[in-house]
Amino acid sequence: MAAVAIQQTSPIAEIDVGVTGTETVLAAANNTMVNDGKTLLLVRNTEAATNVVTLNFNPSFHNRVTTALAITLAVTGSAGDHVILGPFPVASFGTTLSFDCDSVLVSAQGIRT
User: Fold this and answer.
1) Strands 106-112 and 6-8, sheet pairing
2) pTM for the whole thing?
């Protein structure tokens, strides 16, 4: 399990240029991040292969049948490709975002603007 740190940024344009800060190498399961409904998740695929990050829904949200959303991290060039996910509504994902990953060669960082 890895707890992902959140970096405060301002303005949002900084994300386009490149966020500097601490990325957390993800564990295969039970990764977490504090969620306030405004935080984004920067996920970086550090290997030259496709990987999947699975976001877990809050199971009590409207008795949801679907409990997870899989996001494929395709490699379009070389290792190091990234994607920005979110924001994550608290009603759907809870105050702690829980997510899994199919590879320990994926890292993540929380971003709040």
Assistant:
1) parallel
2) 0.75
